[in-house]
Design a protein that fits this description.
The chain has about 270 residues and is mainly beta. It folds into two domains: about 5-115, Roll (Diaminopimelate Epimerase, Chain A, domain 1), CATH 3.10.310; about 125-255, Diaminopimelate Epimerase, Chain A, domain 1. About 15% of the residues lie in helices and about 35% in strands. The chain has helices spanning about 80-95, 135-140, 220-225, 265-270, and strands spanning about 5-10, 25-35, 50-55, 65-70, 100-105, 105-115, 115-120, 125-130, 145-150, 155-160, 185-190, 200-205, 235-240, 245-250, 255-265. The chain has an eight-stranded mixed β-barrel with strand order 1-2-3-4-5-6-7-15. The protein is globular.
């Protein structure tokens, strides 16, 4: 092993951007750096995502392989906050501003701009659809969503959009009963024009996969950058989970860039 496990927080508050809202603590990730691919899932229980990282190519020292697991030991197909933490860590370890990350067969470029780390993803397949009628059973106490779309494969994402100005904190957390209606994770979103141009809220629910509500979800931001691209080319997103997250995005051709601030646990506690 190259280093002891490091607890990092991805998508935390950025000075000058999140001042109007409560502090965003981000999403916790316990990252280990290895000399070679480790065997098996990490052991232990910290409540954080576990991410293993190691040089992915002997011919390219800037290519880093990543495997991420939930705190319950389940492999994650695309872990945005884990990728951000790995890019942040290896940029500093290699003393380079750019790295290339490999996760489950996908290559994700990462780079640094000031105190922000950015990731570049290919766009997913996305199509609009009618708002599902079963939503009234899931969010029965609030007004209905006004638009919907599906993204990715059959077990990927369902995007649900509420009217501008709608406060997503009014939504109750879905229970495991959601699996009776869909296998897709729910990405709930609304624009908040009263906070500024291109500012949105989001929440992420996947109780079918052991995630009642995620803290700050880079993979969801990848989807929302594409979803909102006809209206906004750049987004500032507040994930209104209990800990809170601040996520940024930009659309560029066939790619979407997702960015945020990543800090070690010690640095986060000092902010």
């Amino acid at each position: 092993m190259l280093s002891a496990p490091t607890l990092l927080h991805s998508f935390v508050s950025v000075d000058g951007i999140a001042s109007r809202l409560e502090r965003c603590a981000g999403n916790a990730c316990l990252l280990t750096a290895h000399a070679a691919p480790p065997c098996g899932a990490p052991a232990g229980e910290t409540g954080a995502t576990y991410c293993q990282s190691w040089p992915g190519s002997r011919s390219d020292e800037t290519e880093i392989a990543i495997r991420c697991y939930t705190h319950q030991g389940q492999l994650i197909q695309c872990c945005g906050h884990g990728l951000l933490a790995a890019a942040h860590t290896w940029q500093r370890r290699l003393r380079r501003d750019t790295v290339r990350l490999s996760m489950n067969g996908s290559l994700v470029p990462g780079w640094r701009e000031g105190d922000l780390t950015w990731l570049r993803f290919a766009r997913l397949r996305m199509q609009g659809q009618d708002v599902p009628a079963w939503l009234e059973h899931v969010f029965c106490t609030v007004e209905p969503a006004q638009a919907a779309a599906i993204a990715g494969e059959a077990r990927a994402y369902l995007v649900l959009q509420w009217p501008d100005g709608f406060d997503l904190q009014r939504l109750p957390c879905p229970t495991i009963a959601l699996s009776a209606w869909t296998r897709r994770a729910l990405i709930c979103t609304s624009a908040r024009p009263e906070w500024g141009e291109g500012v949105i809220q989001l929440r992420y629910f996947a109780p079918q996969y052991g995630v009642a509500e995620d803290a700050a979800t880079g993979s969801a931001m990848r989807v929302l950058a594409q979803y909102w691209s006809r209206r906004f080319s750049e987004l500032t997103a507040y994930q209104c989970s209990p800990s809170g997250g601040l996520l940024l995005s930009r659309c560029a051709g066939k790619s979407v860039d997702v960015g945020g601030r990543c800090v070690s646990s010690a640095a986060a506690s000092d902010d």
